[in-house]
Amino acid sequence: MYRTVRTAFKEITGRELGNGTLCRWLLHGVCGIRLDAIKISGAWHCTPEAMEKFLRESSAARIAIRQGFEIQTQEQSRSATRTSKAIAKAQKTLADAGI
To answer: 0.85 exceeded by the pTM?
Structure first.
């Protein structure tokens, strides 16, 4: 079931989503990962699953970058497979750390 992006974010985190953050996630993404959303009647909507996936993958990508891994978007000629592997490794590191 689609919800506004703000509502989906608040349901998951309990926090408000700022205008700048919303625009950045939709237009540019985080570390090459964009939120999968659609515009309905002038407002951006996504599923709670899409929001959870975006939060999980963008967090993993940021951690991978902090650990020295080079994360590039597909536009930068990095294969989706290599990006997925880097994200999976970062997610494993998070899981091992209990985060």
So the answer is: no
